[in-house]
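> call design_seq(struct)
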């Protein structure tokens, strides 16, 4: 039997992290009928932040839930909306005081949310602001879902697609990220179609393989940024562990297992990876693969001194790929006036001297 101290110090379970089954088990453990668990799950996934909003539950059950569980897991502490488009960047403070960022983007076909998966990141990509201060901790599935629910609450509209491209490396937090995918796509929850979710990775090969085995219908995006080991290792230290050839092998496996086309992201950095010969090498490496290339003029990060490729270089790079039969798009820049590039807003928040 657990001592009362043990019970008192054990962290309360977070409702936003629980599956329907887990919510039902907890409900029964609190002495309520099974169907009450379904009601709780539905409320949680509607994004309520307070137990009093769960109006079809008895007062006493609501009190028990408040005593034994955590519902609200973040507060919006800053929001910046771009004046060029309707992109909004949110800063959320978690219950332990850590701060993360998420982005809401409005497209013709609906609202998209870019979510963080870790506080900071430990991958060390040289062009990325999220990693400059290292990784603090993984986010729970409920904290990833929480960002989505808050974006719906704050934006007043349903989010119809999700990209796991905020701060952090999703495959470095595999269990919580896959739980999030299952929660967000659950029938009794938001019912977000897996085909409307994209997971972006720096190329953690065992993680890509494990994800392929899950056979989700999500899109896998891989941050490639160079098809040559020497250059890629310089930009992305993870390449020293998982070189380009291994990444491609794992991605081919992903495409085979899931039938889904893999997206390769390629941030074009002036003078680093944007030459013609680099486009040709990339085209050669991708020939015949079920894939898509997304070119992104790099968002300059002052700390690193990288500059975006010129419009002309981007166009040339894109045309060379297309001419080789590789499906290629250039990512439209959203929110460039609000520091919407990975980790930049959180970084400026953390760097600000305390008032
Ligand atoms: N860790 C994951 C997901 C987060 S980063 C990954 O590496 O894919 C999401 C995307 O933004 C990645 O393609 C990343 O390489 C890219 N990115 C990071 N910093 C950038 C910058 N300054 N400019 C353009 N793209 C950047």
């Amino acid at each position: 039997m657990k001592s009362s101290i043990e019970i008192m110090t054990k962290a309360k379970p977070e409702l936003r992290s629980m599956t329907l089954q887990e919510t039902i088990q907890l409900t029964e453990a609190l002495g309520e009928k099974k169907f009450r668990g379904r009601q709780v799950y539905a409320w949680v996934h509607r994004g309520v932040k307070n137990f009093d909003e769960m109006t079809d539950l008895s007062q006493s059950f609501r009190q028990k839930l408040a005593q034994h569980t955590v519902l609200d897991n973040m507060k919006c502490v800053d929001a910046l909306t771009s004046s060029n488009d309707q992109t909004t960047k949110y800063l959320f403070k978690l219950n332990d005081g850590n701060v993360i960022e998420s982005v809401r983007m409005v497209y013709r076909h609906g609202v998209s949310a870019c979510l963080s998966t870790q506080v900071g990141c430990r991958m060390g990509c040289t062009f990325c602001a999220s990693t400059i201060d290292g990784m603090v901790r993984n986010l729970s599935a409920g904290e990833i879902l929480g960002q989505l629910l808050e974006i719906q609450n704050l934006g007043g509209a349903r989010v119809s697609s999700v990209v796991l491209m905020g701060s952090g490396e999703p495959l470095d937090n595999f269990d919580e990220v896959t739980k999030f995918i299952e929660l967000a796509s659950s029938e009794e929850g938001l019912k977000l179609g897996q085909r409307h979710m994209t997971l972006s990775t720096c190329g953690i090969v065992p993680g890509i393989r494990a994800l392929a085995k899950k056979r989700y219908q999500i899109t896998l995006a891989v941050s490639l940024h160079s098809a040559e080991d020497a250059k890629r290792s310089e930009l992305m230290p993870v390449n020293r562990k998982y070189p380009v050839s291994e990444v491609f092998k794992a991605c081919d496996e992903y495409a085979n297992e899931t039938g889904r086309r893999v997206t390769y992201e390629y941030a074009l950095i002036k003078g680093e990876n944007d030459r013609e010969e680099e486009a040709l090498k990339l085209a050669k490496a991708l020939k015949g693969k079920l894939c898509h290339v997304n070119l992104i003029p790099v968002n300059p990060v002052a700390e690193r001194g990288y500059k975006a490729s010129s419009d002309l270089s981007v166009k040339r790079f894109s045309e060379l790929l297309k001419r080789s039969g590789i499906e290629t798009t250039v990512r439209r820049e959203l929110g460039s006036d609000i520091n919407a590039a990975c980790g930049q807003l959180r970084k400026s928040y953390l760097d600000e001297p305390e008032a």
